[in-house]
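hey can u check if this looks right to u? its 483 residues, i copy pasted from the old doc so theres a chance i mangled smth
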Amino acid sequence: MAETQLQAARSGTVTDAMARVAEREQRAPEAVRQAVADGRAVIPANVGHDALDPMIIGRSFATKVNANIGNSETTSDVETELEKLHTAVHYGADTVMDLGTGSDLDRIRTANVEHSPVPVGTVPVYEAVKRAGSPEDLTTELLLEVIEKQARQGVDYMTIHAGILLEHLPLTEGRTTGIVSRGGSILAKWMESYGEQNPLYQVYDDICVIFGEYDVTFSLGDSLRPGSLADACDEAQYAELDTLGHLTRRAWDQGVQVMVEGPGHVPMDRIAENVERQQDVCDGAPFYVLGPLVTDVAPGYDHITSTIGAAMAARAGTAMLCYVTPKEHLGLPEKDDVRDGLAAYRIAAHAADVANGRPGARDWDDALSEARYAFDWSTQFDLALDPERARSFHDQTLPGDNYREARFCSMCGVEFCSMRIDQDTREEGELDRLTARTDLEASPAAAVNLPPVGVHNGGEVGTDEADVERDRVSNFDAPADSN
């Protein structure tokens, strides 16, 4: 059996995946190897995922963003799912999680792995309970069967809800929103029905063996994450976190990579506390958080309420952010919701990388600012995080080609444009001319901190039809808050 990335790193080997990661992150291969060996970073790379372009998740590397996709009972078409994959990658997702609960799950999962250049994650308890018919009918044998099958299909990381224990359930009784994790609620129902310990906890070492064989990365699920500000940082949440720390070390002992999932809904003043506590309890294993949402009062705008928390969490050391769309808590996201959610989270990730002093991260900002000051509209559009939207917004009010050379936009008009006035003043010799020039080609920034994010040129992902017709995507069926 081949070594996992963790085992290879511990033995001093720089794998091909580590070398590729080093190239993408503009880091020394040895630095990548050491971070993986220490458990401070993971390279989710199933040995069977041939289409993968390896990437790394860790607090000392560029902040990454995950997008949730997946089908439901009403939409189970493979081509539609591949279009979802394409759109997620197109708008900058570093990983995708297939949270499908509908029909034809095996065929869709296999197609996603075959076509995805980014790591694919899953939550196997969803398929297991679908096959069982109810949470009460789950068995450890079925759970292991599903996990092994998904690993064999090439899934790179899996959310495993092994940290919620029978003794944790009474701690949720005073909560406002109870257990909001879908996987957590399923396992809590099973434990309440039988009065027995979490079946995933019972077979955790067996799961480690499967993950070691295929080099699947654990994403340890936060089954008791808070679903409201009122429940943040409570005894239930932190009791499970302590268990996740224990499970992290057990997986490491078997040479399996681990990242740990986090909240949820957390007030701004307690976000850093959550990150610091996880890093301490889990010995520096990468933290992967949903949001967190910093207020509960803005349904329809939760991509904003959550990206505020996401930026703060990434600033504090979170390694990967799970995006939230405007449809969170309200319905199934569609294409524009996914676009808005990914844009918000790419902003949060990049802003944190700038604040954390990642090498070269601000070069992108500086280059765009220089283009803006020079009224180089075409370059400004090309450097934008979402070039299509920036170009469209400009052209709504100044659509003619001549306005691509204009020294103003429709906000101020020609007479009141401050940068035009400043330029004229400098041309007249009253102030020195500005000469700043940022060379992005020479920037030491990681790939995700340089334009374009994602595949804005429409790179091939999915079927030919999906590539040609990607703009007709709709019905993104997996809510981000469902893990």
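The radius of gyration is 23 Å.
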